[in-house]
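Retro notes - structure team

What went well: the batch runner handled both jobs without manual restarts.
What didn't: labels got mixed up in the shared folder, which is why I'm recording both outputs here explicitly, each with its sequence directly above its C-alpha cells.

Job 1
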Amino acid sequence: MKNILIGALALFTVFQANAKQLSGYVYALDKKKKVPLEGAAILELGQPNGTLTDGNGFFEIDLNTNTTQIVVSYVSFISDTINIADKVAIEIILKPMAGTLGVVELNKRRRTYGIRSLDPRTTLHLREQEFQKAACCNLSESFENAPAIDVSFTDAVTGTKQIKMLGLDGVYTSITREFMPSVRGLNSFYGLSFIPAAWVEGIQITKGAGSVVNGFESMSGQINIEMKKPYGRDQFMFDQFISESGRSETDVMVRRDLSKHVATSLFGRFGIRPTEMDRNNDGFLDNPTSNQYQLMNRWQFHGDNGLEGQFNVSYNKDEKTAGQFGSENPNPYNVLIDNEQLDVWAKLGKAFKDKPYKSFGSQYAFNTISSQIVYGNDSNQNVLTTKGQTAYVNLMFQSIIRNTNHGYKTGISFISDWVEESFDTFNVDRQEMVPGAYFEYTMKPDSLWILVSGARMDYSNLFGFFPTFRFHGKRNSKDEKTALRFSIGNGRRTPNFFAQNQNLLISSKPVVLNTKAGETMGVIQESSLNMGISLQQKFKLSYMPSEVQFDFFRTTFYNELLSNRETQTLVLESLQNGTIANSAQAQLDVQPARRTELRFAYRLFDVTSVYDGNRVEKPLISKHRGFFNITQRTRSKWQFSSTLQLYGPQRIPGLDFAAENFNAQYSPVFPLLNAQVSKRFKKKPFEVYIGVENLLNYKQDNPILGASNPFGSNFDATSVWGPVFGRMLYAGFRYRVRIEEEKK
C-alpha cells in the first residue's frame, strides 16, 4: 500500500506539471428537459487528444496547459467550440441540426447489467429490464440473475426469502433506498419483500465496504435501490402477476407534472395468496396464505436556481398465516405474522450551475415498524413482539481542491434507534443514538488512477466513540479495457437478537442468551474488516462487447452475534474472533450476436466460525455455485431468458462437535432451472410474459423435521437447503404509458 501511494503521488506531480483536467456533462434538450448524450466526442482544439461521454453524458479529459478551447460533437447535432479558459468543470448543451426533430435517438442499446468503468468500487448496476427476466414481485426475488447475490428460503414454513452476499447473511449488507438507510434493524428480515420490484428503476450492488458517506454499517457490501421518480418516463403503470401457487400481485402507478417545477406520483400494491397447498403431504402449507396492502406517494421539485428536493411517504400492511392446516389437525401448529410499517423520507439539495462539481445535500428519514408473530396455538404458543422507530439525518457537502483531480465529500450524520423485542421470558430494549462526522477524499493522479479514501468518527451512547476507515482504488489500462480494483474497510452494526433470527424460532429448541461480563442483555456491537480485489477485462467477440471478471473478498469478524443451533438448544451469543468468510468469483459475459447475451459465473465459498470451541464451516452455505443465463431477443420484441444454477453441498447443522466425533453431513448438489418468455408489442405500451420456476421440479425431501408432531422435542423447520414447493408456473402482464417509448 505504501508503494502504491508513493507511485500515485509521483504520477500526480508529473501530471500537474504538464496538464490540466476538465470534466463536465453534455446534454441535449427534449421538451425543456436535459437528456444525457452518450458517446459525444470532446476534442482538444488543434490537438489529436479526445474522449467520449459515458451513459450519463459525463466526461473527463486531460488537456495541455495552453489549451483554451475544446470542440464537442455528436451525430445529428451542431458541433460547438467551447472556450474553457480557467474552468475545471463545464456543462454543455448541443443543438440539433436544422431539419431534425430535436429528439435524442441513441443507436446503442443501454446495457441492463454491468460494472461501470468509471466506478472505483466493484459495483454492479442492474436496470429494471434485468430483474424483469424472473418472477420478481418484490426485491427479495429480484436477484436470481445476479451471481453476486444468493437467494434462499429462511425456513420451510413462512416462505420468506432472504439474500446472502459474500457468504454472509443479508443483515451484514447495507441496503439503502436512494442512498438512505432502508432495510435495516427490525426491518431487516422482511424489508426486501416490502419493496415491490415494479416500483424500482434500478439497483446498484457494491461488493465489499461501501462509502463512509452512507454510514458505518456496510460490512459485506451495499445494495442501493433507486425507485421510480416523479420526473421519470412512466406516466402510468399497471402490472399484474399470478402464479400456480395462487399468488396474485397487482401494482399501479400514476404520475403527473403539476408544473414545470413540481411533479408527483402515487403507487399502490395489493397482494393476496388465498390458496392452501401442501404438495409434499407433510400437513404444513408449502407457502403461507397472505394479504398485503401498500401505498406510496412521492413528490419531486426543482428550481431554476439549482435548488431541488423530494418528499416521500410509504405505508405497508402485511399479514400471513402459515403452518398446519386441514381437519385432521384439530389443534394445529400455526405461525401468524402481522407486520405494519410507515416510512417517511426526504431530500433537499443545492447544485451550483456555474460549478457542477460543487453541491450541498441533505437527507432525512423516519421509519416506524411493529410486528407480532405467534408460534404454536392458543394452548401452547410463544409470541415474538417487536416495535421500533428509526430517525436519520445526513448533511453533506462536496467540492474540489484546486481542480477536479482532487475532490472531497464531507458532512455530519445522526441516526437513532428505539427498539423493543419481547419473546417468551426475554425482553430486550435498546435506545441508541449515534451522531457522526465523515470526510472522503478522491484523488485522480492521472486518467488511469482513481484513489478514494474515507474516514468517519461516530459516537454511540451505548458503545462510545468508534472510527470507520474505507479505502478504494482503481487502475485502468491505457486502452481502458482492463480495470483493477481493490478495497479495504471496517464496519459495525448493532444486531437485534430475535428480529433477525425469527425464522430459527420455528422449532422446539429452547432459546438461550449468552452474554459476557460487562454486556447489557441483548445489546452488543458487531465489528468486522473486509478487504477485496477484482479484475475486469473487456474484449470483443467478433464485433460484440464482452467481458470477464475475477474477484476475491475476505471478511473477518472481531465481534458478532452468533446463532448456534448445533445442539438441542438455540444459543444466541456474543462471539469474538469468530466468522471468517472468503468468497472468490469468476464471471464471463458474452454477446455472440446482437440480441443474444450469455452470462457464466462460478463462485467458491469458504465460511467458517467457532461453535463450542471448534472452528468449522458455517451451516447452510453452498461450498460452490455455478451459474448460467442466456437471454435471446428478436426484432419482433420477443424475449427468451433461462437461468440454470448449480448449488454445491451445504453443511447441515445439529451434529456432535467433539473433535473426535465430528462428522459433518452435507446436502446433495442440486440444479435449479428457471425460464421465461415475454412479448412486448411494438405500437402498444403492453408486455405479456409466462414463465416457470424450478423447471426440473427438484425438492428437498422432508424439509420439516418432526412435522407429524410439531409440539414434540424433535420439531425443526429451519434446516432448509433446497426448494420446498417444486415446479411453479406463473404469468402476467405489464402496461406502461410513457412520455417517449424507449429506443431499442
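Job 2
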Amino acid sequence: MFDVAEELKKLPDQPGVYIMHDVRDAIIYVGKAVSLRKRVHQYFQPSHDEGIKKAQMVRNIERFEYIITDSELEALVLECNLIKEHRPKYNTLLRDDKTYPYIRVTLGEDFPRVLFSRQQKKDKSRYFGPYTSAGAVRDTIELVNKIYQIRTCSRQLPRDIGKDRPCLNYHIHQCPAPCQGYIGREEYRKRVDEVMEFLNGNYGPVMQSLEQKMNEASANLEFEKAIEYRELLGSVKQIAQKQKVTHTDGEDKDIIALAADEQDAVVQVFFIRDGKLIGRDHFYVRIGTEDTKEQIISTFIKQFYSGTPFVPREIMLQEEIAEHEVLADWLSAKRGGKVYIRVPQKGLKERLVELAQKNAELVLSQDREKIRREEGRTIGALKELGGLLDMEGLQRVEAYDISNTNGFETVGSMIVYEKGKPKRSDYRKFKLRTVSGPDDYASMHEVLTRRFTHGMKEMKEREERHLPQEYGSFTRFPDLIMMDGGRGQVNIALKVLEELKLAIPVCGMVKDDNHRTRGLYYQNVEIPIDRNSEAFKLITRIQDEAHRFAIEYHRSLRGREQVHSVLDDIPGIGPARRKALMKKYQSLDAIRAASREDLAATDAMNEQAAEAVYRFFRKTQEESPGSVEEGD
C-alpha cells in the first residue's frame, strides 16, 4: 500500500521530475521541481492553494514517483518529454516540438551557417539543444558569428561566388567573404568545426576571452562595450548547461545502470526514443554475496530483453561485461538489425549512465521494501499464475470483455498486462459489426477473430516488407488469453484459434454465485485459487480492468448517441411513442416487464404498437443465450 506521508519523507532535496498516478495507475500529472522535497510536499498541505484543477488532481493521486536530474534545466526538458509521451490529464498539453529552440549548423552546405531553428529535421545539418531560452540562443548565434566570423547571408555558395559585392559584415570584419572567394572551403570549415566544439561544451576559452575583454573595456571606461560583453557572457553561461535528457542524434537507446549492496540490487533502465528520454523503470534483483556487478548486469540483459518485443539500436552500460559480443549478436538477431552494447567513457553518454546510476542508488536506499512488495504484486504474481497453469516464461496476458445494455450497441474490449502490470498503450476497443442484440458468444467470436486476423496480417506485412520489429499494434501475441467466464467463453476462444491455426493457451476466470472469481477453467479442469495469494489478486485486477475498459467505452458511445434507443429498432415506434414510453416507464427494464394492456394504455400508443413492443422484448429474451459463467 502506498503511504503518502511515508513516501513524502523520502523525497530528496534535489532537482527532478515528479509523476502522479491515479488509482488505475494512469499518469495524471507530470511536473518539475528545483527541490522535489519542497515542491511535492506543497500539494499535500491543506493551506496550499493552486486552484480548482490542481485540487481535483490531488484528490485523484494514488501514488507518485520521481526521477532526479542534475539541474533544473534538465528537469524542465525531461518534463516536456514525459508530457508529450503520456499526455497527462491535468497537464496543460503542449502542441508540438516547437516548445524549445535549437541551434542548427547547416553542414549540408559547402560554406555552413549557424541558424536558429524551432524544429529538428532529418537532414544533413547538426542540431544543438533543445534550449529553454530563445533569447540566449539568438545571443549565442550572434556571438559565434562574431568570434568565428561565420557568414549570415543566404547566398548559394559556391554557385553565387563573385556575382555580387560583399555585404556590410565583410567591411566591419565580421565575415571573411566566402561569397567573393576570399577564404577557401577547408579554412572556412575549420572555423565551423571550432563553432561545433564550442556548442559541444568546450566554451572555456571563449568565456575567458569575453571576461578579459569585458574587464579591459571597463578599465578603459568603455562601459557600453563592457555591458555588451557581460550580457554575451551571461548568455553563454546559460546555454552552456548540458542537456543530458535529450540527444540530437534521434536514436533509440536504453541506458542500464546498477546500484547494489551486500544483499540487494536495483537495476535502473532509462528509455530514450527518437533521441528523447521518455521514461524509466527499475527492477529489484536478489543477489548472492558472490555475484559481481558484471554478472548481475549480464543476467539482467538476458532476462529483460527475452521478454520485451522492442530492442533498441544501442544499449549503454556502466561497465564492461564478459559476454559483450555474444549478447550483442543475440540482440541483433532479435532486433533484425545491428545492436551495439557500449560503455561510454566521456561526454554526454557517460553523464546519462551516471544519472541512471544515481536514480538506482536512490531507489535502493529509499524504496527497497516497496520494490519487493511491487515485485510480488506483479512479476511474482505472474510466476504464481504460471505455476498454477504449469506454464513457464509467462509475460504477456490479454483479457477480453463484452459490454451491452438493454441491447444497445455491443462493444468489446481487449486489455493487456505485461510483467504483471497493465500496458495501456496496447489496449484496444471493438465496435461490433456483425452481431446485433446481446449475443455474448457471437460477439466474442468476432472480437477475437478481428484481433488475431489483424495481427497475422501485420506480421505478414512486416516480414514481406522487412519492417522494424515494433511495426503494427497487433503483432505481439499473448502468452495467455484470459476469458471472463468458464467453459463456454473458453471454447469460443479455442474455436477462433483453431480456425486461424494459432496455438495460444486459454483459461477462463470462473465466478461463484455472488459473481466473484473463485478459480480458473483451464484444459477442461477448474483450478481453485487461494484468495490470499498474489496470483488471485492479479486475476481480480485483470478481470476488473477488462470490465472497466469495456464499460467506459460503452458509456462513451451512449453519451455520443444518447438519442439512440433499442426502441428505435422496433417497427412502428417513432420518436413520439419512444418519448411517451420512456416518460411513463423510466427504464427499458420497466417496459420489458409491462403487459400488452399497460403498453396500449400509454399516450401515443395503440394496440398494434403495444403488441410490437411486447413481442420484441420476448423475442430478444428467447434468442439471447444469456451470460456465460462457469461450466455453462
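One thing worth noting from job 2: The CA atoms of residues 47 and 395 lie 45 Å apart.
We'll revisit the folder naming next retro.
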